[in-house]
UniProtKB/TrEMBL annotation:
Name of the protein described by the UniProt record: N-acetylmuramoyl-L-alanine amidase
Keywords, alphabetical: Cell wall biogenesis/degradation, Hydrolase
The EC number(s) this enzyme carries: 3.5.1.28
Keyword Hydrolase: yes
Organism listed in the record: Rosenbergiella nectarea
Molecular function as annotated in GO: N-acetylmuramoyl-L-alanine amidase activity
Domain N-acetylmuramoyl-L-alanine amidase: 24-171
One Gene Ontology term from the biological process aspect of the record: peptidoglycan turnover
Gene Ontology CC terms: outer membrane
Amino acid sequence: MLALLSGCQATKPAPTTSQQAVNTTYVAISHQPRINAIVIHYTVADEQRALALLTGKQVSSHYLIAQHPKGNQSSPEIYQLVPEDQAAWHAGLSAWRGTYNLNKTSIGIELVNKGVIEPSGQHFGQCERYPPQQIGVLIQLVSQIAHRYGIEPENIIGHSDIAPLRKVDPGPCFPWQQLAEHGLGAWPDQKLVNKLLAGRAPDAPVANAVLLPLLKHYGYAISAHATPDEQQQLIRAFQMHFQPENSSGYGDQLTLARLQALLLQYPWQR
């Protein structure tokens, strides 16, 4: 019986030794690199716990950067946990500038950091600062990856930018402006911001109805049915990145001017 059953089993076709030539004369223009973004996260967990989590079955990241050097090291350790040609499970449900589910199109970098320690009312409370050596190592790594894939500054982003209703990392303590000074990430030009303010009080309030269409035009995914709380989370995500001195989720004239400047500096070619 076993012999009879084995005879009924499907057999795999033998590999062919000949190879059909592939014609590469015609090249489509409607394509782009698979990797077009870098997403920065914080771990909340310490280094050893983060390594355990990020090498488990639930989540992963391409890189993890330690907080401080150890022993005789001159800089914090960089761990590569997933090859860059493989998708890491770091982004989850996400969207940025018309791209959805960024696991397949981005490189994820985790920084060992406790993150927001004491959320307080409308504003974030204390958050853990990123050590200069850790940021120095990050700048080197991001520079290499961005050069390798031709990643534009506006696509070097945080988890909170691509999932603003779920995530707040890398938080308001992350030095986005410092990265931008190295050409790694978007940042509003101060002279342009001052021009756009046109003498208006920077802290004068601005309605959500003014900000939300502009945020969507810049690249944030915004539902037309967003609740007031969700609208506040979206504005807060922008502020954590570009206006960390005010991450309340309530927009003001400085929020508006910085957003307008970014739209002029980094237009989204859809």
